Structure formats: structure tokens, C-alpha cells
Amino acid sequence: MFSSAKIKLDKSLVDRIRKFSEIAGYASPEEFITHALEKELAHLEDADSEEEIKKRLQGLGYMS
Amino acid sequence: MLIARSAKATIVGAGVLLFLSTASPADAYVGPGAGFALLGSFFVIFATMILAGVSLLILPFRTLWRIMKRRTKVKPLVPRVIVVGFDGQDTRITEKLMAEGKMPNFSRLAERGCYSRLRTTFPSITPVAWSSFSTGVNPGKHNIFDFLDRDPRTYLPRLSSAYIGSVDRFLKIGKYRIPLAKPEIRLLRKSKAFWKVLGEHNIWSTILRVPITFPPERFYGAQLGAMCIPDLLGTQGTFMLFTTRPESEAFQEGGMRLDLKGDGDQWKGTVKGPENIMIADNPPLELSFQLEIDRKEQTGRLTVGSEQVDLKLGVLSEWAKLEFKVVPGMKVAGLCRMMLTEMDDHVSLYLSPINIEPEKPAMPISHPGYYSTYLEKRIGPYATLGLAEDTWALNEKVTNDQAFWTQSQDVELEREKMFFAALDRLRKGCLVTVFDATDRIQHMYWRYSEKGHPAAQDTDNPEFADAIEKHYLLNDSLLGRVLDRLNDDDALFVLSDHGFTSFRRGVNLNAWLLQEGYLYLKEDADGTSEWLQDVDWSRTSVYAVGLVGIFLNIKGREEHGIVAPGEEVEKLKMELQQKLAGFEDREKSEIGINEAFDTDLIYRGPYKGNAPDLLIGYNHGYRISWDCAAGKVAGAVFEDNIKAWSGDHIVDPRLVPGIFLSNHKINNDDPSIVDLAPTILTLFGLQPAPHMEGSSLLDPADITPAKN
């Protein structure tokens, strides 16, 4: 959970990310990069099954 | 088993300190889809001993390094900031009781410093509001808009705050499968909590049960997670009822109904545990128990494994430990409470949701990982489930008002012990603790406080007529104990995330959207299926998922979107806002919805695209209906709410502000929950981060700097 890996990015790209992450409302450039990558991955990854989702939500008082 | 608390207490001391400085988090995980993967106990003990040795050897160097690191350049204005959160404490009730002189400690604090109403978030619900408290930003920047998010590919709801993945790589040995990776467990709340900023400046924080802190993040401090920590089955809380009653008397909606077999005074049952992913097809782990009852004495004794639990009819047991054998030499443990609910013609036994055991957690629930173990050694076993109070069992009338009250107050007491243990140890830094019972008590006992509430029919127990007031007075008593232990130079904040109101009538937004021609059903579907499975997405332009708002079915965003982004979206939102403004419940001649809010206008930040397109501002007494929350389209638009869950706060946020008190006077007569994070940073001599939106409620010039 706490593990991380380093990825090399072009310095000019990092500078642009630094500049715009604050303008966009991110708490850090890392959050900006993570969000951008997660958005792309969401298009590629499979959705969870209905059965699995139902199980996870079971017991949430607001829905019972 | 009845866990011997006195014996546990004796363990605290040198042993715990040694453990704290050396132990590593258990490599065991349980969860939905994930099942569990854990290292063998021998390896854990061996590795722990090695770590203990190494840690002792380098202890002097670590201590020196920490002292050097803590030479921070910031100059705190106060040595300690203490934050006490009472989830859902309502302004109107608080102000009434204060005016009546029934909450002297709240009044004392208000006179010394301040009392104010606190603007909550849109929407006014726990995960959203506490996330804004933690980060100092609006939901558009922290990404929590509801308890639920929706997957635009499938239109299915999902938990908004945490993602728990599954393991798909195994080493097969005979009938066993050894997981080759840990399941991914990810916090979906974004931005940065203020305690993380404090930690970057070497200021310690202890964060206890603040909602939306699961899985825990790494920072300089200690944290016990809260809302959305699952039970051992991977759900948000599944109770079990073992009963001799026939199948036809099953529950309407939830819980597991299991057989109790035997006769006379001897009964047997099998507890359902988590899936065993170490065996193909993930069969559920099971645990058999024997129950011996004494009808004359109205008692019972349950034997499970080597543990024995003494039971009394209608009385909740102490925490009992359940250990499920996974493979030889490997176990996964949970905690539950039990209650015999009947022992006449039929025998029934209630089992609370099985909480992840904090001593050896099967999933990361604290930071550092061993912090939950430390707390268990300090205060004994405690609830770890996100929504620890079993509202579902009371809704289903499996338990009763007394059992729910006991359960809620016991959880509160556990929390109080954690809080005071942390307060006593804290010399410098920040301590935040959220007490949940105020919220749960109001959800479940509001029917007692309101004449004519549809759920009030069976509420004839006079003992609970003033349950809500009684609990507020307990909060006052707790605050008194906090004030007594406060130092003169401490800063104290007491707040709630939102207020409360009645939930008399449910609104099925999807039924309304169907009536109005925004939502269509598949051919031959009747709209009774859950999770919007009956919806024809090729013709549907608007739908409701989750608890707080509605989504447009937008081209390029939703899998089968039909509404063009841009002008068409704006036109449709405006049309819906006009129809929903002052939306009337004609049967009751009352306004059900005050207003629908365009989230594009009220949120700012990189995640606002994940929000519902419109937030629904329900009037007092109204909320999304149970059927709509479950994704059913069929039925009336308005319906009575007859469940014990009879109070709520999913309404127009302007109707349910929170409370705010401090031992300092504030510079703002309209404080907001986003102001807390910048205020706390300011008190520690730090500038609020540029992305934060609130502003400090205290002027640094008015506070005498802390002595070093």
C-alpha cells in the first residue's frame, strides 16, 4: 500500500506539471500525474461484476 | 470467549513499547474479492524477532535522527490542538438544550471561546463533510461526493472512498493456491489531509476514527481508520441470525439467516466466514459452534473452537473472538458480539457483523500497521467496522432498541478510552477523534422524537422517548471530561459535520424520471430489479445512482450516453432544475424538494467531473427512498418511511449545518467546515497550502506563541 516506484519524466514536462497542478487545484504534482494516469487506466481496466459490487455495498445502512 | 480485560491491561508497558518500536504490520489481508493472503505464523514470528533485534541495535541512531529532524523551523502558536468531532450533532437540538441549561459544558466552552453554526458541504453527508474537514477543500478537489460513486461503463454503484482489488496470481500446490501478491487497497479520497502537511514539518498527529481514512495513509503520526472499513466478509456489515424458525420468515432485505439445528437445550450452527482464496473456487470459511441453553435461567453458553461465550436472553455479549482456519497453521480472526433473541418455541441467536480483529488485523486498518494492536493492548478489544453500529439488524427487527443503544454506547466508550489514552500521551501536536454515536442514535431513534412519524407505530418503549436528548447529555458529559484535562494553552475545537432532521417520506427519483419521460425501461421489464438493471440506456437521458443526486446519460462519458455534451446538457439540467424547484408531495401537501443544485457551478477542482450533475436539496422530512437507493425504478414517487432508520441529513445542506465550538474566539461569524484545516495549520505556525480553500478562523496575533 505504501510502496512506490520511480518513473523518469522529461524535465520540461515535470516543470509544466508543477506549474499547472496548483492552478488545476491539485495538492501536489504527484496527485496531478496520478489522476491523469488513473483516468487513462479506467478506460482499459475491466469493470467489477454486479455480484462483487452488491457484496461490497451490503450493510451500508443508508441503503438497507 | 470472554476476553479478560484486566489481564490485557497488564500487558501494557515495556512489552508494548518494545513492540511499538519493532513490530511490522501483519501481512494478512481479507476483503471483497481479495479473500486473504497471509504469511505463515512461524515466518511472522521469525521476521519479527529479527526486526526486534535490528531495531534495538539501531535505536540510539534512530533517536538522534528524530531529534535532529524535529528541529523544525516553524513556531507553533499552541503546543496542542485537540479536535473532538460529534458526527451529526444538530444545531437546533444543541442550542435548545444549551438554552435549557442541560448542556453546561457546551455552554461553558461557548462562554469561554465561541459557539457557532458551521456551514457543511454540498451534500451534507459524513464522507463528504469529513473529507473537506481533513483536506480544507471542496469535494471537487477531494473527489468524495457521496457514499457511492458510479461506474460510467456499467452504471453500477461502487463505494466512493476505497477500492479493494483482488489477487489474480497464484502458485498452485496440490489443492492449495498461494497468492503471489497482495490485493490492492486504495484510498479514493484525493488532495492532502492537514495532518500530512503537519507531518512534513515534523509535527505529530494522532487521528482516531475520522471518516474516510481507510486504507490509512503514511504520515508522521498514528491513525486508526474508520468509515468504510469492511467486516471480515468484505461487506459494510453483515449480521447473522441463527434460528429454528422456518425459511419463510426470512428477512426482507439484509443479513444472513442461518439454521440452528438440534433440539431441547442443545443446538448447533455454522458461522459463515470470508472466502478462502487459498483453495480453488474460493469456498467460504466456516466455523461450527455448539449452543447450550438454560430456559429456566434464560441463559446460554456458546462454544466455538476453544472459546466459550456466556449469553443471557436479550443481552449483548462481550466481544468474542472467532478464528477461521484457512490452511494448516494459518488462521484469520474476527470479533463479534452475540445475543440470544428468543428461547421459547423457537431459539434464535444474533451474531453482529464480524469485525476485523484489531490485534492481528487481516487488512490494514491503522498507521502504523501495529497501531491497532497497540490500542487493543491499551483498551481491550474494540469495533473496527466502518459503520460499527448494526443499524441493519435493528431495521430488520432482529435486535431491538435496547441492544442497539448498548452497542452504540459501548462503541462510544471504546472511542473515549482511545481518545483519553492519546490525549494523555500527547505533549505537542494534534489529536483528532470523531465520535459516531450521535449520528447513529439520531438515525435510529428519531421516530421517538416526532409525533406522527410513519415509523413511530411500534415505538412504544418509553425508555427511548428521550434517547436523542439523553445522548446529547452524554456528549456534554464527555466534553466536561475533555475540558477538565485540557491545558490552558491548548486549542480545542468541537464540531459536527452536519445536523439532523426527520426522514418521514422517501422520494424515488427514478420513478419520477420514468413518469416524466427521462428514463425508460427495457421491454418486458417492470422496474423492480435492483441496480437499474431494468433500464433501457439507449433511450434514457437522466438517472439517479447513489444517495445525493442525479446523472445525465452523457455521450462519451457514460457507456451508452445519449445526451450531447455542451448546450444539450446545459438545457437539460436547467429543465430539470425548474421542474424540481419546490417539488411538491401532493399527498401530504408539502414541499419534498427545495432545489436541485448544478454541481458544475458549486464545485471547483479537477475531480468535479465525477460528481452527480445535479444535487437534490430535499426538504425537512424527505430523503431519497430506500427503493431508489437500491436502484429500483418501480413504485410511487413518494412513500412513507416505516423503518427504524427514521432520521437523516441527506437534505438541502442549508437546513442541517453543523456545530462549532472553540476555547478561542473566532474572527468569522459564518465559519465553514473547510476552514478547520487552514486554522489548524495556522495554529502550528504554517501557511495554509495554496490549494486549500478555507481560511483560518483565528488571528495569529490574538494567540500567544507556545513556549518551547
Describe the structure.
The complex is a heterodimer of chains A (64) and B (708). Chain A is mostly helical and 64 residues long. Chain A has one domain (11-63). In chain A, 59% of the residues lie in helices and 0% in strands. Chain A has helices at 11-24, 29-44, 50-57. The model of chain A has no long low-confidence stretch (mean pLDDT 84). In chain B, 27% of the residues lie in helices and 25% in strands. Chain B contains 18 helices and 37 strands. Chain B has an eight-stranded mixed β-sheet with strand order 4-37-27-3-26-11-12-25, sandwiched between helices. In chain B, strand 5 (148-150) and strand 6 form a beta hairpin. In chain B, helix 12 (437-449) packs antiparallel against helix 13. The model of chain B is unreliable at 1-41 (pLDDT under 50). Classes of the chains: A mainly alpha (64), B alpha+beta (708). The interface between A and B is large, with 27 and 59 residues.
Keywords:
heterodimer; A: 64 residues; mainly alpha; 3 helices; 59% helix; 0% strand; elongated; B: 708 residues; alpha+beta; Alkaline Phosphatase, subunit A; 3 domains; five-stranded antiparallel β-sheet; disordered N terminus
Short description:
Chain A has 64 residues and is an all-alpha fold.
What would the principal axes of the Cα set say about the shape of chain B? globular
Tell me what portion of residues of chain B adopts beta-strand conformation.
25-35%
The CATH topology of the largest domain in chain B corresponds to: Alkaline Phosphatase, subunit A
Shape, principal axes of CA atoms of chain A: elongated
State the major sheet of chain A: none
Largest interface: A-B, 27 and 59 residues
Assembly state here? heterodimer
User: What is the correct CATH architecture of the largest domain in chain B?
Assistant: 3-Layer(aba) Sandwich
By DSSP, the count of extended strands of chain A is 0
Q: How many alpha or pi helices of chain B?
A: 18
Tell me the count of domains of chain B. Answer: 3
Could you report the average pLDDT of chain A, rounded to the nearest whole number?
84
